[in-house]
Design a protein that fits this description.
The complex is a heterodimer of chains A (417) and B (151). Chain A has 417 residues and is an alpha/beta fold. Chain A is 39% helix and 17% strand. Chain A starts with 13 loop residues before the first helix and ends with a helix. By secondary structure, chain B is α+β, with helices and mostly antiparallel strands. In chain B, a hairpin with a 2-residue loop joins strand 2 and strand 3. Chain B is globular, with a radius of gyration of 14 Å. Classes of the chains: A alpha/beta (417), B alpha+beta (151). The structure holds pyridoxal-5'-phosphate (PLP). The site of pyridoxal-5'-phosphate has 14 residues of chain A, from helix 4.
Chain lengths: 417, 151
């Protein structure tokens, strides 16, 4: 069941949604309301998530899977319950296919080391794209170094979309792994990922999708997508930091060696031999982030009661309105104008370096991200050292877009005179 | 953070140097050149240094940077020209102390024109922008032909 098909969705009411996020009432320098436009870096957390975490610590705190006492049972139920919520959120066939990780970065490193490293040989290829986050570049570079496989890169076009013809041309029997971003954090581009997965599978590649920026904006259905692995980060989808999830198809996860060794991931240990635990515990060595998982479950519940048709409409309105308003400013270049975009606007202003823009906007209570967004190859492609990025969540408003535009006019005044 | 802090940061002198940086050129026969790199924002500058008898005979820079980094590079080149190695090191220490330390013991007098950068200390994320050219110069002085980062 995807979010879209969930019954009993309530209407989307912007004011009441904003009330759900305590931080949005904050003021900066005592007078200016907070304008938080850095959602692609991390999202804010609704009260329901904060309450779930507090409630766990106040009433149920214990280690999981270890004690027979009542608290341990409750904590285990909450933790495993959260896993089922992630399973529903991703529409994974089984909760055994959901591994809790720290986030997308850890998921990619787990796959590179536990899945790819034993598999890859010289002559094999790992195919990624030019718009990957560093977390989906560096782990593959490392494993290529370790195995002699080579890294291939799907090029970007001038609008910030992936060149699909080139992608098809790069696929071959040598392509053992296709690891690609679903939605770009630096550009907002939404890739035609289902079609790309299908093509990659047709040459026999294993498909790994970075869903960090897709999960906060779109319903995800891993069965419909047909991918082998899909990674998400909780903190970008209204949950706490330090928790994320990796979906993996059962037969693949089952055949993989563990990523880390320790408690929890074993059935039996002696100095002669160790039996690994079953899925998903085989990949969760040590005490997990219990409160984080519970917070992630609460975030998924929170998202599920929103009307996602209305959410998408609202976010797309913010994107279009924002792009239109920004393009009226002189010498401002929007970086990334792919036909299909999530609510992310990256831009470059002549005469105003992103770092200066960020500092001056911050004085007006406006939080944007400035820098290379952990996607330096994207910056190189567009020949800029960095960009300013405004990224919107469903709780943002048109008024906040106006505040940004006003703030940018002020930036010009300060820097250019 | 108040409005005055912002004015302290973007003083007229700083804005002037960032818009029209001085010594923004290549020195072909430099005795050493070093690249400085700020991984936080992707800024990259290159300092060209020409030493004669242990004195800074000529110095210039190239590269892309924010207003703070560009102005700091520009003013640095003006301040160190003609100074000997020891004097440059002293100035480096004073500048570094002025922008990066928490205590209030900086005497603007000892910094001369560079005192305009004291406002940077209120912006911990921006200290690196101001100090990148100085770290790069220090590396150039040590004749180490290596890449410098602010991390
Ligand atoms: C597209 C994308 N992939 C991966 C990551 C890494 O996620 P995390 O830092 O949560 O591991 C991020 C965010 O930083 C991202 O935006």
């Amino acid at each position: 069941m995807t979010l879209l098909s969930r019954p009993h969705a309530v209407q989307f009411n912007l004011e009441s949604v904003r009330d759900d996020f305590p931080i949005l009432k904050r003021r900066i320098s005592s007078s200016k309301p907070l304008v938080y436009l850095d959602n692609a870096a991390t999202s804010q957390k609704p009260k329901a998530v904060l309450d779930a975490v507090t409630q766990y610590y106040e009433c149920h705190n214990a280690n999981v899977h270890r004690g027979v006492h009542i608290l341990s049972e409750e904590a285990t139920d909450l933790y495993e319950g959260a896993r089922q919520k992630v399973q529903n959120f991703l529409n994974a066939p089984s909760s055994k296919e959901v591994i809790f990780v720290r986030g997308t970065t850890e998921a990619m490193n787990l796959l590179a080391q536990s899945y790819a490293r034993p598999l890859l040989q010289a002559g094999d290829e790992v195919l990624i794209s030019h718009m990957e986050h560093h977390s989906n570049i560096v782990p593959w570079q490392m494993v290529c170094e370790q195995t002699g496989a080579s890294l291939k890169v799907i090029p970007l076009d001038e609008y910030g979309a992936l060149n699909q013809e080139a992608f098809t041309g790069l696929l071959s029997k040598r392509t053992k792994i296709f690891a690609c971003i679903h939605v770009s954090n630096a550009l907002g581009t939404v890739n035609p990922i289902k079609d790309m997965i299908q093509q990659a599978k047709s040459v026999g590649a294993v498909t790994i999708i970075d869903g960090a920026q897709a999960a906060p904006h779109y319903p995800i259905d891993v069965q419909d997508l047909g991918c082998d692995f899909y990674a998400i980060s909780g903190h970008k989808m209204f949950a706490p930091t330090g928790i994320g999830a990796l979906f993996g198809r059962h037969e693949l996860l089952d055949a993989m060696a563990p990523y880390q060794g320790g408690g929890e991931m074993i059935k039996y240990v002696s100095f002669d031999r160790t039996l690994y635990n079953d899925l998903p515990h085989k990949f969760e060595a040590g005490t997990p982030n219990i409160s984080g998982a519970i917070g992630l479950g609460a975030a998924i519940d929170y998202m599920a009661q929103l009307d996602w048709v209305a959410v998408t409409e609202h976010e797309q309105d913010l994107l279009e309105y924002g792009q239109q308003q920004l393009s009226e400013l002189n010498s401002l270049r929007i970086i990334g104008q792919a036909p299909k975009k999530a609510s992310v606007i990256s831009f470059w202003m002549e005469d105003a370096h992103p770092h200066d823009v960020g500092t001056i906007l911050s004085h007006a209570g406006i939080c944007v991200r400035t820098g290379h967004h952990c996607a330096q190859p994207v910056m190189q492609h567009f020949d800029v050292p960095a960009t300013v990025r405004a990224s919107f969540a469903f709780y943002n408003t048109r008024d906040e877009v106006d505040a940004l535009v006003e703030g940018l006019r002020h930036v010009r005044k300060v820097l250019v005179g | 953070m108040d409005v005055n802090d912002l004015q302290d940061l973007y003083q007229q002198v700083i804005l002037d140097h960032s818009r029209t940086p001085r010594n923004f050129r290549v020195i072909d026969d430099a005795t050493s050149t070093v690249e400085g790199f700020n991984p936080l924002c992707g800024d990259q500058i290159r300092v060209f240094l020409s030493m004669t008898n242990d004195k800074v005979d000529d110095i210039s820079f190239q590269g892309k940077g924010c207003a703070i980094c560009t102005a700091s590079s520009s003013m640095m080149t003006q301040q160190v020209k003609g100074k000997d190695r020891e004097q440059v090191h002293q100035l480096f220490d004073r500048f570094h102390h002025a922008v990066a330390s928490d205590n209030d013991t900086v005497d603007p007098e000892t910094l001369g024109k560079l005192a305009v950068f004291i406002g940077v200390r209120k912006y911990p994320m921006r200290v690196k922008c101001a100090s990148l050219p100085w770290h790069t110069l220090k590396a150039a002085l040590e004749q180490s032909n290596q890449v410098v980062t602010t991390e």
